[in-house]
Amino acid sequence: MHPVTRAIRSQVDRTNEMEHAQPLFLTSSFCFDNAEEMRAAFADENDDNIYSRFSNPNVQEFVDRMCALEGTEAGFATASGMSAIFASFMTFLKQGDHLLSCRSIFGSTHTVITKYLPKYGISHSYVDAAADSRAWEAAIRPETKMIYLETPTNPALEVIDLAAVSALAKKHNLLLNVDNCFATPIAQQPVQYGADLIVHSATKWLDGQGRVLGGIVLGKKELIKEIYLFCRSTGPSLSPFNAWLLSRSLETLEVRMDRHAASAFSIAKALENHPSLAWVKYPFLPTHPQYAIATKQMTNGGGIVCFELKGGLSAGKQFLDALKLLSLTANLGDTRSIASHPASTTHAKLSEAERQAVGISSGLIRISVGLEHPDDILADIKQALDQLPA
Ligand SMILES: *Cc1c(COP(=O)(O)O)cnc(C)c1O
Fold first, then answer.
1. Of 62, 197, 204, which is best to mutate to test ligand 1, by the most ligand atoms within 8 angstroms of its C-beta?
2. Using a 6 Å CB cutoff, which residues line ligand 1?
3. Out of 3.40.50.2020, 3.40.50.1000, 3.20.20.300, 3.40.640.10, which CATH number does the structure's domain 3-250 have?
4. Is 0.85 surpassed by the pTM of this model?
5. Residues 57-106: pLDDT tens digits?
6. Architecture of domain 253-386
7. How crowded is residue 193: how many other Cβ atoms within 10 Å of its Cβ?
8. How many CB atoms are closer than 10 A to CB 346?
């Protein structure tokens, strides 16, 4: 069966009530009939649930569905995308290790890498998105343990060649850890290119409705066993309620992503050559600097479109104020379209030069294209652009 069919049809065992939709197991712990059963569960002799910090049926259903979609053997779900990313670092890196990452990464991931990992003696270096294989290889050190990357990156939509970086990781015996948040498994399955670990913020497209935080780490059984042992003791586990919502969301992931991507592509094409814009960026536009890589490793360009306002920083804020339909909010990957201006918000603390280095120019606008009719989304963007001073 197709991955989507398996994802939709894998579900927790029906209870005696014979419900069709999944029941919610909102319980902290699970009971045992006798002391021997309890001993066996604690001794890991079976898969019985013990405590919801370790495992829970709703959480496992979400994990199983994600494994079907990503093509991975196992996974561990966490309370947020950041806890998934942090767990993937803390489980596999130790004092003296070096982490190699693409430069353009999610802001909080950058904070973890530059502010917290050094406290544990874990060093890092960044590689530019435009770097070729040779530049990636030149950055590998004897103490490098892991390569971490996002593709496409948030918010600059840079695309990194998964096959090329994966070949290097294999050659140098490094773990390849990919944040697949922007593409989702509908557009790109990093495991097909040899990624060892896949991390997600389930808060974004996987939920798709802006309701709950969640995250997951996916990969081979033996690697996820280590993630599980780290999380079971440190406690970033996903709530059963959030898992129950996220699991239902996955049933519509493919149809949602097809529509998000089709609308995003049509809006990107319609905005190209607009007089107020310096450029428009979308992975499937032939003008994208990594168009060839994007179309090779993704089946659609995703739901995010970026463009650069000619008016820079001040135009960014004026544009946001002129929008009538699109939401001004920090999230992305919602049924409702969202506009954001990184230079005045998420990346306001960086200097102009630091922003340029991660692909964030002063007039950069990121649109998370929702499920409203694409004509209405485009009309709102255009009327807001028309209000900018010439
Ligand atoms: C939002 C996001 C994260 C962090 O996820 P949270 O669920 O907010 O903790 C990580 N990576 C990317 C690419 C994101 O967009």
1. 204
2. 80-82, 106, 108-109, 150, 154, 179, 181-182, 201, 203-204, 213, 215
3. 3.40.640.10
4. yes
5. 999 999 999 999 999 999 999 999 999 999 999 999 999 999 999 999 99
6. Alpha-Beta Complex (3.90)
7. 18
8. 18
